[in-house]
Structure formats: structure tokens, C-alpha cells
Amino acid sequence: MGLNEWAYALSESLLSEPLPRRWAHSLGVAKRARSLRPILGGDAELLEAAAVLHDIGYSPAIAATGFHPLDGARFLREQERADERVVSLVAHHSCALLEAEERGLRGELEGEFALERPELVDALLYCDMTTTPDGTQTTPAERLDEIVQRYGPDTIVGRFIQRAAPEIHAASARVEGRLERADAGAQPR
Questions:
Q1: To 10 degrees, the CA torsion angle through 90, 14, 74, 45?
Q2: How far is Cα 184 from Cα 189, in angstroms, rounded to an integer?
Q3: How far, in Å, CA of 49 to CA of 71, rounded?
């Protein structure tokens, strides 16, 4: 079984029944990851696997701390013996260190999981922050607004996402710039 086949099957088994909307979001994030293939090279499959797995920590079957990046990464490392790069991307997806700080878990997250290459961290953040909870494409600004409205501005998630907004916009701009350069390089002369 290939990496992506395994990742999709695992994510579906953990999310599709208990959390169908989260499963739809994960499928949408993976679709966005596939759209980044022109700038990912040999890491395209890796990013798609991390994309479909990024929210498995929400699954009631594995949630332990209530902080889904940490729970998902620990499950992937300890139970699935997953590729450490996939584990790292899941652990650190979408500015997770900032949310970990809000939750008093930053030391655990940093201590257990190394950061992946910045280009891949940006790419996964972009995929997550341009996908609605239902799996459709959106803009980072609309996604940020939706998260604040859904959770509330004074909740842990609301505070964290507002703090993360500048980095989310910057990472999205970096990814879009890379896509534009790749597209320009592919145009016939």
C-alpha cells in the first residue's frame, strides 16, 4: 500500500463516521495539496498524505489532550509508525505552536516534534486555510473570519487564530508567489 492510499484509508477510518464534516474538510485540504504539485516536486505525495491526515487528532478514538495537532501526531508516531516527515507536518500544521502556547502545550509540541522544511509548512498551512469546513475552496481572509465566528474571538482557538493571521496571510502569499513563478516558467515562449 502506498503512502497516500494508506493516509486516505486511515483518515477515513478515523473521521468519516464520527466527524463527517471534518472528513470533508480533510478531503478538500488534500485536493488543494494536489493542486500544489507544480511547486512540490518530490514532496508532493508527502504533502498530500499530511493534508488528508492533518485533522485526525479530532477523532474521538484518539483525542487525548484536546489539542488535535499533538494528538494526531502522537497517534501517527506511536500507533502507526508513520513517516516522521508526515508526523512533523501534522504536528505543526497551521501555526500549531501558537495554539499550543495558548493551551500551555508549546514545550511538549516543540520538544517532541521537529519542524519540517518551511516551504512544506507553508504549503500545508495554505491548503488548510484555503479550504472551508465543508471542503470547498475559500480565501485565507474568509477562512480566518469563519474560524473566529465559529469558535468566538475570546476562546483559545479564536485568540490563537487572530494572533496567527499575519503569518497565515504571509505563508499564503509565499505559496501563491511560488505558484505564479512556476506557472510563468511553464508558459511557452
A1: -40
A2: 10
A3: 17
